[in-house]
Amino acid sequence: MSASQRSEPARPARSARSSRGVPGQPGAAPSASGHPDCPDGSGRPDSELLAALLDGMDAALCAFDAEGTVTHWNHEAERILGWTAAEAVGRKGLGGWAARPGDARDVEARLTEAMGATGRRVHEFALLTKDGGRVLVRTQSSGVPGADGRPAGVYCAFSEVHAQVDLERSIALSEALLDDASWNVVLVDADLRVAVVNANAAGALRTARKAAPGRPLGDFLDQGMEEVEAALQHVLAEGAPPAPTELWVTLRDADPDPADGFEGAEGVRYELLDDDEAVRGEGTDRGEAGAAARRRCWRSGFLRLASPLTEEPAPLGVAWIFQDVTEVKGQEQESARMRFRGNQLHRAARAAAECEDPMEAASVHLDFALAGFADHALIDLVLDPPPGAPADRIRLVRAAATPTGAPGPCPPVVPGGIPLAYPESHPALQAVERCGSVRASARRSDESGAVQWATARKWPEGAVHGLCAVLRSRGRTLGVVTFLRTSSRRAFDRTDATYAEDVAARVAASVDLAVRRP
């Protein structure tokens, strides 16, 4: 609260005086018993009520009559300067006791000017304390008119300059954070509803500054909302954490951005890799790119806000200050993923070199590739067409597979020579036909729909995402390797397709060696 706001209660002082004043001093107020407007009729003097009001102010206050005699002196003025009300009230001016003679003339001139002017006047004075020290104060002075409208005195509310500067600095900091800060700032009340947001935070939440106050955070956040509320409740209960916290959230009400690519026949969407190799996304969710755009990582700091006007701090809410580090975290995760996958390829090559059976070596490559990448893996080999059959008809036979119940190693199986009953639009057949990679995801996320989707493609139960990479060696197509993910993992992306092709190249070399063996 500024000094001007704190000085408002002093306006009735023109007809009353502090109980700390000298008895019998002119300007004493009449008693309440003789006041016709006294509502309670208690007989309590107005001067006692006024004294209690003045002494409860946070700002120091003194008042002068038209002759410059001190008529009021509250407790805060006594605290700052050391002079008690009994010592101050009744003195003529401030010179010689509360101000040096050289300063007193300027002070009295300023007060005389304020007495006859309209509105408040703000000045800075150097006053004397009782022990002889000097203190710089900032004052707000205003004239007090008499009953006839002529100036009857002046009151002066003041506080130490450094305290006022601290207050102004705090206000300026708050305004800067809520207007010009490059960080996102959200003030949340004790009920976890948005109170104030700055412009950057409004953009991060995809809303307008005027539309955010009063709304719960759940109107802006989807996934990650529980973590944010838990953090805010922790801050309200125990205070701010010692270090920033990284929170992953998904925003609501964001229109999914269309993925790069083009529409093919039957609504099947094709997408292009960086090397212009076509990757067919059968049933790929078009909102996948939009979902990725809505998922953000916010590096957050929290500050508990408490009222400074209460004896025991009462929580007003939490200041949530955060910065979007999604791009940085994505790069860190991608780097870690690339290092891990590179190490897996290296370890798989060394382990496969120790295998006498080439198909066992191919299985080893898949075992190492599955770690952190997929839940199931299959190897289907191209079966030569029988005599008289069309040469362009693709038939596949199973050569290796992980267990259908739970994820595990991918051992070779003895091919029975019976082709797999894949439908014509099966991703594995499409991969062989196109000599490229094909991604597929279930359109329905419910359990029954996912089961039907996996069953129709002859894949293990629970698979909702598939990635088929063709096996090519010495210019020939040997088969296809399929990686499958359950609903606990995200869909395959282009980076996954590149990694699957690296694994498929190593698997194809081992399969080619097995096919050439007598």
What does this structure look like?
By secondary structure, this protein is an alpha+beta fold. The protein is built from 14 helices and 18 strands. It is rod-shaped. The termini are far apart. It comes from Streptomyces rugosispiralis. Residues 1-47 are annotated as: Disordered.
Distance between the termini: 93 Å
- Global mean pLDDT: 79
Physical arrangement of strands within the biggest beta sheet: 9-10-11-16-17-18-14-15
Low-pLDDT stretches are 1-43, 254-287
Give the overall shape, derived from the CA principal axes: rod-shaped
Q: Which class do the helix and strand fractions yield?
A: alpha+beta
Rg (CA only)? 41 Å
H/I helix tally: 14
Count of DSSP E strands?
18
The percent range for strand residues is 15-25%
List keywords for this structure.
GAF-like_dom_sf, PAS domain-containing protein, five-stranded antiparallel beta sheet, 25% strand, 14 helices, PAS, 518 residues, eight-stranded mixed beta sheet, single chain, alpha+beta
Summarize the model shown.
The chain is of the alpha+beta class. About 30% of the residues lie in helices and about 25% in strands.
Strand and helix layout:
Blueprint: H1 3-6, H2 46-55, E1 60-65, E2 70-73, H3 75-81, H4 85-88, H5 101-116, E3 121-128, E4 134-145, E5 151-160, H6 161-179, E6 184-189, E7 194-197, H7 199-204, H8 225-238, E8 245-250, E9 262-263, E10 269-272, E11 278-282, H9 288-294, E12 295-306, E13 315-324, H10 326-352, H11 358-370, E14 376-382, E15 396-401, H12 427-434, E16 437-441, H13 447-456, E17 463-473, E18 476-486, H14 494-516
Parallel strand pairs: 11-16
Antiparallel strand pairs: 1-2, 1-5, 3-4, 4-5, 6-7, 6-13, 8-12, 9-10, 10-11, 12-13, 14-15, 14-18, 16-17, 17-18
Helix pairs in contact: 10-11, 11-14
